[in-house]
Amino acid sequence: MKKTVGQLQQNFKLSDLKVLFERLFPSPPNGKLEDYRFIVNGIDLNIQNESEFNKNKHLIINGSTLYPLQRCVGGSDVDMVTLKNIVRNELPSEVGKILKVMAQCAAHGETTLCVALCCYKYCAGCFIRSFEASKFKLECLGCKKAINYMEFFKSPDFIQTLDCLDQISTLPKHIDYQVCSCGSPMVNETMYAKQQCMQLGEQQLYFYDKLVVPLLRQMLNLEELSLKLSAIIAERSYIDGNQLYEQALKYLPRLNKFMFNIHAHIINTSSIEIDLPSNDDIRNSFIKRGFQSVGTCATKPLIDNVGDCHVYSLPYLFDDCLFLSNCFQGGQFNKVRMLMMRDRYPFEEKLF
Q: Which domain of life is it from (predicted)?
């Protein structure tokens, strides 16, 4: 690696960096400034936009090392968004080609025509939602077995598209940046409190342990967290304060403000009965961890092997309230604009 020494004025601009670069690396043979990425203290400087460049130029100080990394010539960016849209558009048709059986859908519990995915069966709509939520991976919710696309889908072209998407989603993780679940490339740095991707939408999550828990554990500098989560969990009990603390919160040493709105949908198709906590048990588990104002609404026992638990911080600051059941204990919900009710247990007149 060749090391070259250069000097910038104290109040330098992006144009000054360009002049210095052209002096130190005359073209030819080294090319133009735009052919390089500039890294300082692990941060990728944006030399395409001066306002963005100015946000990080303070990192260039006396004695600092600035790494100019030449971009590879040729090739092109992989359009992951287009591939994902192709999969989404063709998925309903592909699911229609799969042999179906009359069974109880593992997601919503109703008996209908379902596709069999290893240990569980899903109606077409629930399978499509779960497949998208799992980033187009085929994995059994019960035994966690990974399933080859060729063993499940029928059309070779559709399978090839999925394989291509899988390959380009994995490859960049072994280079120097990561790919967000929306398909946007992001610099592979420590996750900070303000890091966010505006393209991410809300979805019901089928892989709580694999997606949410590892993500939260990376946010070491997080000071405030507003967690809105709807998770489908197999063969386990509801998410309570003890579980949330042990799995995630104890890894966030700087967290001083935590608002949460957590819905857990439990599925139990095994012969082993799940010991479900009561509303008081769940509330006390959060109080034990320092969260004094907590609301809960948990169904007990399970009906048709499924159950729901909604636990939330008070005052309630979210704009929706999902899967409301007859265990709802009331309160003020001034910000709620959308309400979804589930009647596995009959509602009583006093609720209204």
A: Eukaryota
Which one of 31-45, 222-236, 243-257, 324-338 scores highest in mean pLDDT?
243-257
pLDDT at 27: 56
Q: Average per-residue pLDDT in the chain?
A: 76
Task: Please give the tally of structural domains in the chain.
Answer: 3
Mean pLDDT in residue range 218-224: 78
pLDDT band per the 50, 70, 90 thresholds, residue 208:
low
- The beta-strand segments (E) located in 140-215 are 177-179, 185-187
Please tell me the distance from the alpha carbon of residue 137 to that of residue 133, in angstroms, as a whole number. 9
CA–CA separation, 244 and 101 (whole Å): 37
For residues 352 and 350, give the distance between their C-alpha atoms in angstroms, rounded to a whole number.
5
In terms of domains, do 27 and 114 share one?
no
Structural domain for 233, as ranges? 200-351
pLDDT band of 135, cuts 50, 70, 90: confident
307 within 8 A of 324, measured Cβ to Cβ: no
Pair 225, 278 in one domain? yes
Asked whether the beta carbons of 266 and 306 are under 8 A apart, the reply is: yes
226 and 144 inside one domain:
no
How many CB atoms within 10 Å of residue 298?
24
Q: Are residues 38 and 115 in the same domain?
A: no
Query: Do residues 115 and 124 touch, judged by C-beta distance below 8 A?
Result: yes
